[in-house]
Design a protein that fits this description.
Blueprint: H1 3-16, H2 22-29, E1 37-41, H3 47-54, E2 58-63, H4 73-80, E3 90-91, E4 102-107, H5 119-129, E5 130-141, H6 146-149, H7 160-165, E6 170-183, E7 189-201
The protein binds S-adenosylmethionine.
Length: 203
């Protein structure tokens, strides 16, 4: 095995031990609609995709490159899911992805990186891709989050009423707000202001 292949294998093994998000499990457990197609928006290294594929979904994960959080997310996912016929990995952004009809759309810790100026249109495309009875699960960022004003990336920060307004065509299953000091995944102190939402699309 050459050095590059060995490194890939090491990296893959480390990443594949990362668990899927509890919000994804909550959403999948409540998904009663017939369409067993899922989209993982800003999939990162694919933990949620792996979980949904394991549940029998046909999964469309996508992510943008380059992005410093996961600069090789798509390469990693292509490697990770290369032998899964039910997983179709794409390089794409929230704004450009061609959303297929889906029963489940996941956007964990990702959608707040969407381009704010076109977010209304992006959100319409996401909501319209969900079949009636389909479920959206994901996170949004509030204005009091440290990243809302001081991130290397443009953040699509939304007030609570703006997040609620996105779900007028949905029934909310779970809506929680986190507004407290905490840590990043790399252990740095940071104030978090986020909303976690799981909602069912009405017909
Ligand atoms: C914090 S990571 C979360 C990854 C994954 N959803 C998870 O929960 O592990 C945010 C992800 O959003 C992706 N991302 C950022 N901007 C994006 C965009 N405009 N379109 C698609 N993905 C984007 C990043 O590349 C990164 O993989």
């Amino acid at each position: 095995m050459d050095k590059n292949t060995a490194l890939w294998r090491q990296y893959y093994e480390r990443v594949s031990r990362q668990p899927h998000h509890p919000l994804t499990e909550f959403a999948a457990a409540r998904h009663a609609a017939t369409c067993r197609v899922a989209i993982d928006c800003g999939c990162g290294t694919g933990s949620d995709t792996a979980y949904l594929s394991h549940l029998g979904y046909r999964v469309h994960p996508f992510d943008i490159n380059p992005f410093d959080i996961n600069p090789d997310a798509i390469d990693l996912c292509r490697h990770r899911f290369g032998h899964h016929p039910g997983v179709e990995v794409s390089l794409g952004s929230f704004e450009s992805f061609d959303y297929p009809r889906a029963g489940l759309i996941i956007a964990n810790a990702s959608l707040y990186f969407a381009e704010p100026t076109s977010f209304a249109d992006t959100w319409l495309r996401i909501a319209d891709a969900l079949e009636s009875g389909g479920i959206f699960a994901g996170h949004f960022m509030g204005p009091e989050d440290d990243w809302a004003s001081a991130s290397r990336h443009t953040i699509n920060a939304l007030a609570r009423h703006q997040v609620e307004a996105l779900f007028t065509r949905f029934d909310i299953l779970r809506f929680s707000e986190r507004n407290e000091p905490g840590q990043t995944a790399l252990g740095k102190s940071k104030h978090w202001h986020t909303y976690s939402v799981v909602a069912v699309r009405r017909g």
